[in-house]
């Protein structure tokens, strides 16, 4: 990653995203681009917009002063106006190899940005990876990554990016196959997919462990496992589906963003920068 986009509403909750971004930037050398989006208000629109713009500038300058000399990364900010999810996703698209880090909860004297639908909309609309984080203590490193797999090829598209992250942080990857069915054919396919990913991890010298789980709720199973090993990150696909109006998160990813107690790295399944070599290695044509 070269640039980390951090949406802020300046609440304590949204600053959790900034703290995580600072940790990631210090390890990767990425620059941090903070952003505040001014929503359209009723009443005296221009007067209200100017007031919020000045207040946002003041808050950003306080942040820059606070971290001056404390981080090796370059911090900058931008203030824009419009729909929160669209402005943030469009900003990320302007940078090469961008990652967005955002808090899933936040409320302040500004517009209420991240409670409810906006966190989901940002993730589902983005064409780049997004890390969502709830208010929690930020680890100083990513030692353990949980990588759940299902029997679709799309779930494996996140592997190369996750591997690159694991190389930077010296992480161990926990491959997790999750089946809602005990059909032998389903289990066989899941085990084959796990073996393909494990082979890829071997090639890249990434330590890993494989676990096979059965149950009725994929989200709860994954989160329970992540808690049991004290994981630092969960890597999932956003399971995007096209509808008449917009892009919606699949139910699995939606639950993750809402329930997860540790950061969740979400990938859009149509825009990952995966190489032809990676596709073949991961068995794209062996399904």
Can you put this structure into words, describing what you see?
- The chain has helices at residues 12-28, 45-67, 84-93, 117-125, 159-169, 184-203, 218-229, 251-259, 276-281, and strands at 3-7, 31-38, 75-81, 98-103, 130-133, 144-149, 172-179, 208-214, 233-237, 241-242, 247-248, 264-267.
- The protein has 287 residues and is of the alpha/beta class.
- The strands form 2 sheets. It has a 10-stranded mixed beta sheet with strand order 3-2-1-4-5-12-9-6-7-8, with helices on both faces. Strands 10-11 form a two-stranded antiparallel sheet.
- Strand 7, helix 6 (184-203) and strand 8 (208-214) form a beta-alpha-beta unit.
- Helix 3 runs parallel beside helix 4 (117-125).
- It starts with a strand and ends in a 6-residue tail after the last helix.
């Amino acid at each position: 990653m070269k640039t980390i986009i951090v949406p802020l509403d300046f609440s304590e909750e949204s600053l959790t995203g900034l703290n995580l971004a600072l940790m990631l930037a210090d390890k990767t050398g990425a620059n941090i681009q903070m952003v505040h989006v001014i929503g359209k208000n009723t009443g005296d629109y221009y007067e209200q917009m100017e007031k919020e713009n000045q207040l946002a500038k003041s808050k950003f300058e306080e942040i820059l002063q606070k971290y001056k000399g404390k981080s090796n990364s370059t911090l900058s900010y931008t203030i824009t106006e419009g729909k929160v999810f669209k402005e943030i996703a469009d900003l990320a698209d302007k940078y090469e190899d961008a990652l967005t880090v955002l808090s899933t909860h936040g409320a302040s004297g500004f517009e209420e940005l991240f409670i409810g639908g906006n966190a989901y909309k940002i993730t589902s609309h983005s064409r780049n990876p997004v890390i969502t984080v709830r208010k929690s203590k930020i680890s100083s490193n990513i030692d353990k990554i949980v990588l759940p797999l299902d029997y679709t090829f799309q779930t494996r598209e996140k592997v190369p990016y996750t591997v690159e992250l694991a190389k930077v942080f010296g992480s161990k990857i926990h491959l997790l196959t999750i089946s809602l069915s005990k059909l032998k054919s389903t289990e066989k396919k899941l085990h084959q997919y796990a073996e393909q990913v494990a082979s890829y991890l071997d090639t890249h010298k990434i330590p890993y462990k494989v676990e096979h789980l059965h149950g009725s709720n994929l989200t709860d199973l994954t989160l329970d496992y992540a808690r049991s090993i004290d994981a630092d990150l969960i890597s999932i696909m956003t399971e995007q589906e096209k509808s008449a109006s917009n892009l919606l998160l699949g139910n699995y990813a939606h639950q993750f963003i809402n329930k997860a107690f540790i950061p969740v790295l979400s990938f859009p399944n149509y825009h990952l920068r995966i190489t032809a070599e990676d596709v073949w290695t991961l068995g794209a044509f062996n399904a």
